[in-house]
Input
Amino acid sequence: MPTSPILTRIRGFNAQLDKFMQIRATNALCMDDLADLATRIIGTSLEVARASVWMLSQDKTEMICISLYEADTDTHSRGAVLLSSDYPEYFKAFLNARVIEAVDARTDPRTNEFADGYLLPLNIYSMLDAQIGSVHQVQGVLCCESCDAIRDWTADESAFAASVADGVGLAIELDRRDQLNIELSEQNSKLGTLATEAEQAREAAETANRLKSEFLANTSHELRTPLTNILASMEILDGTDLDPLQEKWLATARRAGGYLLHTVDDLLDMSQLEFGIVKIEQSTFSCSQVLDEAIDICRGVELIETISIVRDDRVNDQLTSDPMRLQQIIVNLLSNALKYGDGKPIELALLPPTLEDMQVRFEVRDDGIGIPADQHEAIFTRFQQLNGQTNRSHGGTGLGLSIVRELVKALGGTIGVISRPTGGTIFRVELPDLAARIADT
Output
């Protein structure tokens, strides 16, 4: 039984389509080479004078020819540009139609914009254009042009052109995905490198921090022993017969030694806090007695004019906590108030708590320079003080308040600051009764 011409033609189209897809799948073709392959296959299969691939710009305002196959010379060229402003009807047509079958391209309203400047000079009569699309959007158009006579495009020719255009669109999509995979792989590699570098930096920082803490702890111990002996010797010397000038010099030396011992103790405490080895010695004690002892300690190292104590009778004076750590907290807060209080009266208050689960509240109030609101958190950071001018005026290591916050936290309490930049600061510490907290659990 003889085969019909249409069936033979369809089989030929399918064979050429298979060839196109196989070459595309087995060869790493760039976009221009792929377009050259597509235009040659469709040009020779449909026996048209010209076949071309045009790619649409991202903003859809122009198309660029990336391959024009001319059968009479068997050559390819590229580079021509079509502007949507010059051919608005054609752009609208191919963006909205799967295939444009312009039998008489010179009169067809979708293509007649090309008549005078393109179709007539090149003797083009008919156009068959298939939309090149991808998953996301229209990418361009595959154009077949018949010269010398009008051509009535058949359904199988339109289907073949559409299939080749689909193959080009698929290649574009796969190329886009390959590029995205390459970029993703590069990004993953960079992220892996950054993660490794970050981990190395973290380990280096932890090592440096540990070595610093060990150095501070060892150095503080080495300094504290001879310094304590020096201060003890000064105390003995104070009991001897001294003239007024010698007494003045000795008093200055004792104050300076007291400051230095306080600084060494701060460094030692900070290193212990960083290592988490601060031990809480729990006992029941009188809060008032701890406050009195804290003031006596400050009087031993400060030129104190006025520190007053306010005791609220509603407060239960007995507290189960660590009296030495509480004393250290109060001494540091008083020292801070003396440093920044500008010589004005300081008030130490023992008050009822404002927070649930707390038993007692301590407040240290001064009428000094005040603290701006944006620095209320920063002052509790290690080695952090107010602005540089304040540092030079008042000195200090910037450890006291950091140590206070860590100790308050270790005792299960809270600390806050109330201050105005125009003057006056209140540091508020609230502590629970540790015995009651243990009983509740």
Confidence is low (pLDDT under 50) at residues 388-395. Residues 68 and 77 are 5 Å apart (CA to CA). The chain is about 50% helix and 20% strand.
